[in-house]
Amino acid sequence: MTSAPSLAELIANAEADGHDHSSTEKSTGLLHIHNHAAGTVVWFPTWKTFRGTADWSEAVDAAGADLAESEAADAQAAVILAGELEDLLARAAVSGDAAAFASENLTGHLTRTWALGDAAAKSTGREPFTAGATPAAFEGYPYEVYAQDGGVFASSLFNDIIDARRQHALAEEAARKALKPVSRKAQKNAARKAARR
Q1: Which of 156, 155, 160, 162 is CA-nearest to residue 32?
Q2: What pLDDT, in 10s, does the model give residues 40-61?
């Protein structure tokens, strides 16, 4: 009997496969996003593929350690998820290279999110999500974490990471412009206009 592959092994194999992304998706169970800014492809697991890796049970156990074994587990998971998303986007905003940051952090955030959802289900005595209504742990979460096997979640999060850096850069530029010194001529013109009023 062969052991389940690790997520790192699946991603390394996908990256080594070359340009036939469709074939690679079928053979590995991974999905991909073209990171045009960096000229790379970002591979990530579907939630189903993640559950088939050697990393899944360890990730669920680690996430379960953060939760109480009670009905409150879903609410705790929701709070943790919101905090971790806020932290991720805050770090993305100040990163030097948003595309590289997205590539490095996307899979980790996806798998942590799914593991927290599965750990919350386990803590409350339910089976992990397979179909149907989105679990209570994701109530209020801004992404559809299971839609299209996680592809919607990944692409939305990827775009939000890039946008966080862009918005931060725009805010920095606006602050720089606001602090730009005013010329003497502009000061005199403003004084004259004020004197006429």
Answers
A1: 155
A2: 888 899 999 999 999 999 999 9
